[in-house]
Task: structure prediction
Amino acid sequence: MSGAEFGGTVLLLVNPTSGRGRSMKLLPRTVAALEAAGFTPAVVITDNLADATEHARAAEAGSLIAVLGGDGFLGATAAGARDSGAVLLPLAGGRGNDTVRRLGLELDPVKAIENLALLKSRELDLGLVNGRPYLGVANVGFDGLANEYGNSARLNLGPFVYLYGGLRAFLEWKNVTFTVSVDGKATIFPGWLVAVGNVGQYGGGLRICPLALVDDGLLDVVSLGRASILGVAAMFLRSYRGSHLGQRNISFSRGNTVTISASKPLNIYADGEMAGPLPAVLEVAPAAVKVLVPESSPVLR
Result:
């Protein structure tokens, strides 16, 4: 993989707010690395996520888009690339960079570009929340509240911002009753969270859907039912290793269509960004977007 394979050009989309400015700090080195790899980068500092989607949608089919930002920014760009047929190169410019991590890409954008020869273009699935595309995880419940607190944190805590958000949410959460239907089979339970994974990792390293694959045409659904505070904490700690699925009151299923509602008003998140209030319908769009990934990626079949 080299610049010549894409006509020597690359569209570099940058989110100036990702990682509290991390992407902008990385930008000069990223541009230099792309030039060293034989590309002529066209740099676009985006105004917002919708702007990234539109730039990706306007790209030529088969052209290369380097995406320097966080998970939400990558998901927004993937939404546009799904329509245009452009190829994405995810570059870690956010705080958690969970999708980049789980895809098996380098966390240093310069190293990722230097290793382009080791990457292959693969057609990956996209999840859809009420029609809105996402790459990583859609989640609702306690972890959504933790996400809200993490996003509003004043301190630059990097990946630990999610731990901070979780600790705050612990103090306020009260169990609600979820109704979750997977391919028409409904389950009603009091609980803490529901996660619907495509890449399957979020929250700064939490492999909440550890068996998720991005090219199987399915969504992985993991939920935590009634549990003590210690049980919730244990689940999150085990999820760093992806070893929580056998824990009591954790349910796992897989399907094409998932519907979620709850007994109280809750917001559902996708790739760390608020996707809107429940109820929600989640679907999978198989082989929807082309992404450069290592052949050894742990989320490929």
In short: The chain is about 25% helix and 35% strand. The CA atoms of residues 52 and 205 lie 25 Å apart.
